[in-house]
Amino acid sequence: MQIHVPDPAYTGSERARANFRLAVKIALGFVALLWVIQLSDWALDLGPAEFGVRPRQLAGLPGIFVAPLMHGGFGHLIANSPPLAVLGTAMLYLYPRSALRVLPAVYLGPGIAVWLFAQGSSHVGASGLVYGLVSYIFVAGLIRRDKRAIAASLLVSFMYGALVWGVLPIEVGVSWETHLAAALIGVTLAIALRHLDIPPRRRYSWEEEADEHEQDDSDPQGKAEGEPHEDAEAPSVGREK
């Protein structure tokens, strides 16, 4: 399989650098928002359980929208903050068009699945976002021939490969249903959106020369512009009467 190297003029452009800085700001801004919410809950002595997704309870429906912003404690938030910053930056920078669909899906989708099928009293935390982004970036790197996507996939598998155990009902008190639903959503979207966000491929000099030769071969040989072709019919000459 041929691996495509992105055009350096594209990846090294000022616009690309500005997009990266914007992706970092958005990702860090979201993490900062989570910390503001957690500090507010701590200062006001609010329990996160009442804001979580409670399966098949009408009172638990609002949790689909707010549960990813709530955490069970500072330890829970500390565990989610670094991957959210790293994965959020990678998603927004490498796949900006896909992110418009992936981020809402991995934010809301796991909560809907948990409300419909999960067990337990209340499910909170942004770990669904983490699992959704990990699975998307990892699978996208496997099925694309983009060097940047492959590098991001390898980095994600190296840093967060151990998260795979979180989709199994092994540890008590961990919402494995959220993790599993988010991972499945991420994998599905990585396959469905595989043709989006393809960077322009670097073209080498020999490729351009080959294109020029093909173009020359397709043109008529030895014919100046405006001259008749060999098979063109010569003008008839009238006979004297």
Measure the end-to-end span.
Answer: 75 Å
Q: Briefly note the structural class of the backbone.
A: mainly alpha
- Give the SSE order as H and E letters: HHHHHHHHH
How many structural domains can be distinguished in the coordinates?
1
Instruction: State the major sheet.
Output: none
Q: What fold name goes in the CATH topology slot?
A: Rhomboid-like fold
Shape descriptor: globular
In total, how many beta strands? 0
Work out the radius of gyration.
28 Å
Fraction of residues in helix:
55-70%
Number of helices: 9
Low-confidence stretches: 222-241
Percent strand equals under 5%
CATH architecture type: Up-down Bundle
Oligomer: single chain
Q: What report would you give on this structure?
A:
The chain is an all-alpha fold. The chain has one domain: Rhomboid-like fold. It is 60% helix and 0% strand. It contains nine helices and no strands. Helix 4 packs antiparallel against helix 5 and helix 4 runs parallel beside helix 6. The longest helix has 31 residues. The radius of gyration is 28 Å and the shape is globular. It starts with 7 loop residues before the first helix and ends in a 23-residue tail after the last helix. The C terminus is likely disordered.
Write a brief structural summary.
The chain has helices at 8-11, 14-44, 63-66, 74-94, 96-117, 127-143, 147-160, 176-192, 205-218. The chain is mostly helical and 241 residues long.
